[in-house]
Design goal:
Elements (H helix, E strand, L loop, with lengths): L7 E6 L8 H10 L3 E6 L9 H8 L10 H6 L2 H7 L2 E7 L1 H8 L6 H8 L4 E5 L3 H5 L1 H12 L3 E2 L3 E4 L5 E5 L3 H10 L10 E6 L4 E4 L2 E3 L6 H12 L3 E6 L11 E4 L3 H9 L7 E4 L6 E3 L18 E3 L3 H7 L5 E8 L3 H11 L4 E6 L11 E8 L2 E9 H20 L1
Parallel strand pairs: 1-2, 1-3, 3-4, 4-5, 8-11, 8-13, 11-12, 13-16, 16-17
Antiparallel strand pairs: 6-7, 9-10, 14-15, 17-18, 18-19
Helix pairs in contact: 1-2, 1-9, 4-6, 5-8, 10-14
Bound molecules: cytidine-5'-triphosphate.
């Protein structure tokens, strides 16, 4: 059975040529068992008739924010509460900008602002509009607030250009929507996750850190939540917003992260260490700003405590999963860490290459355990996080039997 069965999806259709694919999207969502209500912007009606959506969804189409008859049938706040998911396909550049800035000047934007449901956008626009600095900034703002994206794809465009900006195919959008609903694989379990970098103070204004963005750890937390777990996220400094629904403990240094984790690990079922914890910290950070003297200087560093190894060696150890970020000999080094830190599983990725790793949206993961492993391949961090959670659930339950 599809995870979309009985889910209530509000599909917002905005103005763009890709709107012609939206009726097929409604058909596919309904075939998967979802209930769909369609909202159209004024511009969308220049591309597809409301009657088409009424016919495929079997429901009246919502258009006006201030139409008393429509409000009497199902008001915009009621619609916002009804939705388990707000899906915008196609999402035009203009619509992304309006949602990014919290505008609520029509029914579609008001719905996005008024709903607590996850928001999934399938952008569609000219390649130059997609590449513009304004759209990129809006995308970043929305992603940092936990908005989900599917696509866009690259290829030939209606305007004759070639490049990124084609709306993803309806089947891919359905799969992305399905991915946002939980599988219950970790229902009732307590999962503790570390994410992001740590900062080791040199003095009150300077610190040592690394390139970790926290994206992978936050994606793993979102995937664990979607799988039904209760999630505690111990997060180092990150510019991203953590997924809604986690219990978040903000920390700065490796020592703070160690204490936050070790005081909670005995009460969790699964521990996943995705954080890029500093391996060394400053022996005695200066209490006042260090002034420059012109002479060479050195900083005295000592190793930090290994959080992952400490959790795995603790008496009431949870199912323990580590990450290995390597620049070479991936499987070799990852398996060595698996063994030396006595882990149940390790997820390994190559870093330092363009298009995957620390600051990227994509990643490439391989997962290893003592007598096996699996290549998860290259994909978005959110998709990889879901696959990783599936493997963790499989191994956890296999071990628990
Ligand atoms: N880790 C940890 N505490 C530390 C260092 C690392 O919990 N003080 C965890 C990370 O969260 C990750 C795993 O250990 O899950 C591997 O981290 P990585 O930096 O790849 O390896 P290190 O053990 O630090 O070894 P090296 O830097 O030599 O590769």
């Amino acid at each position: 059975m599809s995870r979309l069965a009985d889910k209530q999806i509000c599909l917002v259709v905005t103005g763009g040529i890709a709107a012609y694919k939206a009726p097929d999207l409604v058909r596919q969502l309904k075939a998967a068992g979802a209930r769909v209500q369609v909202v159209m912007t004024a511009a969308a009606q220049s591309f597809v008739q409301a009657l088409t959506f009424q016919a495929v969804s079997g429901q009246p189409v919502h258009i006006d924010l201030l139409d008393p008859t429509a409000e009497a049938a199902m008001g915009h706040i009621e619609l916002a509460r009804w939705a388990d998911l707000v899906l915008v396909a196609p999402a035009s550049a203009d619509f992304m900008a309006r949602v990014a800035h919290g505008l609520a000047d029509d029914l579609a934007t008001t719905l996005c602002l008024a709903s607590a449901a996850p928001l999934l956008l399938a952008p569609a626009m000219n390649q130059q509009m997609w590449r513009s600095a304004a759209t990129a900034a809006n995308l970043e703002l929305l992603a940092a607030r936990g908005v989900h994206f599917c696509g866009p794809d690259s290829g030939a465009q209606a305007c004759g250009d070639v490049g990124p900006g084609r709306m993803s195919e309806p089947a891919a959008i359905c799969a992305a929507a399905e991915g946002l609903f939980g599988s219950n694989e970790l229902l009732g379990l307590q999962v503790l996750i570390t994410a992001g970098p740590t900062q080791e103070a040199i003095d009150p204004v300077r610190f040592i850190t690394n390139r970790s963005s926290g994206k992978m750890g936050f994606a793993v937390a979102a995937a664990a939540l979607a799988a039904g777990a209760r999630v505690t996220l111990v997060a180092g400094p990150s510019t991203m917003a953590p997924p809604r629904g986690c219990d978040v403990i903000n920390v700065r240094s490796a020592a703070e992260m160690h204490d936050a984790v070790l005081s909670r690990s005995a009460n969790c079922d699964i521990f996943i260490g995705t954080a890029a914890v500093a391996d060394y910290t400053v022996v005695e950070p200066a209490s006042a700003k260090i002034k420059k003297s012109g002479a060479a200087m050195s900083i005295n560093l000592v190793p930090t405590k290994d959080i992952l190894a400490a959790v795995s060696a603790s008496p009431e150890r949870p199912f323990t999963v580590g990450f290995a970020a390597e620049t070479e000999r991936l499987e070799d080094y990852a398996r060595t860490k698996l063994q030396s830190k006595q882990l149940d599983m390790i997820a390994a990725n190559l870093v330092g290459m363009p298009g995957s790793g620390f600051e990227s949206d994509d990643n490439e993961l391989s997962v290893y355990w003592a007598d096996g492993g699996r290549e998860l391949g290259k994909a978005s961090k959110s998709l990889l996080a879901r696959w990783l959670i599936e493997v963790i659930a499989e191994r956890y339950h296999g071990q628990a039997i």
